[in-house]
Amino acid sequence: MNVDHLVGGALDYWTALAEGHRAELRGMYGQDYCRIDVPYDGFQIFAPTTNSKLAADIAFKRAYTLYPHPCLNACGVQETIWLAEAQMNRQFHGMHTDLNPRVAICRLRVSEAIAEGTLDPTKPPRPMLSTAEYEHLALRQLTDDQARMSYQRWAARPSRNA
After folding, report:
1. 106: buried, middle or exposed (CB in 10 Å: 19+, 13-18, 0-12)?
2. How far apart are CA 154 and CA 50, in angstroms?
3. Cα atoms in the Cβ-side hemisphere of radius 13 Å centred on 104
4. What is the number of alpha carbons within 13 Å of residue 158 lying toward its C-beta?
5. Straight-line distance from the first to the last Cα atom of the chain, in angstroms, rounded to the nearest whole number
């Protein structure tokens, strides 16, 4: 897999896997998007390539250096590209560039996870949990008090037969 060729939903998907989320790549109306499973909250769309806060959280957590660099494009016009570097990681000193700083951060995160061995691009991703498995997992995490209160609410519900 060439990380430089990842864009849009595919890049969001691999970034989510690199961050340790349960993720799946979905498609709707001809566009791809990444959906992650957030414990106790359900599914959320994860798009750090378009959401500056998510990309900034990744860059801050991983101590990336991000800075603009002026350069000339193919037509000789000056434009600014963004460089994202992983200088604080002792195992991986990588750099990615792009016209969009969020894309540069995401590509660097995927490259770093592959280099560290936490992300294997050759393995198929884990399947998402079904609704029944997700509810079972959520119920297993309840404390005794929460389970008792949940049962009391269930027992106090109005009967449909009455």
Report:
1. buried
2. 41
3. 21
4. 2
5. 61
- Kindly state the helix (H) or strand (E) to which residue 8 belongs, with its residue range: helix 8-18
**Is 60 exceeded by the pLDDT of residue 162?**
no
Angle separating helix axes 8-18 and 101-116, nearest 10 degrees: 40
Measured between alpha carbons, how far is 50 from 8 in angstroms, rounded to an integer? 8
Chain mean pLDDT for the chain? 83
pTM of the model: 0.73
In this structure, what are the phi and psi dihedrals at residue 148, rounded to the nearest 5 degrees? -60, -45
Beta bridge partners of 44: 36
Question: pLDDT grade, residue 46 (50/70/90)?
Answer: very high
144 residue type, one letter: D
pLDDT tens by residue, 67-107: 999 888 888 888 999 999 998 877 788 899 999 999 999 99
> Distance between CA atoms of 105 and 66, rounded to whole angstroms?
8
CA distance 100 to 2: 18
